[in-house]
Each structure stands twice: as C-alpha cells, then as structure tokens.
Request: fold
Amino acid sequence: MRDENRVRIAHTSTALIPGLIVAPLLVITGTIAGAVLPDICDLDELETGQRREGLFTAVQGFVSKLEISLAVVLVGYVVSVASVDTTIGLRWQAMS
Reply:
C-alpha cells in the first residue's frame, strides 16, 4: 500500500468521528422536541385560554428548515476551507 493511499484512508476514517458524535445527539434532540411540544401547548392554554398548537408546530417546522439550510451552507463552507478535492473523474480514467 502506498503512503498516499494510507493517508487518504486515515483521513476518511477520522472524518466519520464527527458524524458518530452528532447523529445520536440529533436523534435525542428530535425525540425530546417532539415529546415536549404538547406540554408546551397545554401550558400555553392554561396561561392564555387559547389552543395554539398550529402556531407552535409552524414555528418548530420553520426552525427545523432553518437548521437544515444553515447546515448545508456550513458544510459547503467547511469543504471549501478544507480544500477537499471535489472533482469527479471518469470511471475508466480512475481505473487505468
């Protein structure tokens, strides 16, 4: 195995670590948010006398879409700053 390939494999393996840390946190956060929202709606009804589940669900959906958009922008920025080679060669050129 050439040294160049060894470095590439090590780099790929270390790139998985942030995903393995973040993925469980995202699952936990999504579960807690879904479980707490009905309690927030009930508490709001006790304070205001109005049922506004739609408002809370709309805000939660908007924040979720905002998170996804910011994550895509941030990943693109990190990839460009890390100067990752994003060019895709043709299949038969890579094998020769």
Notes: The mean pLDDT is 81.
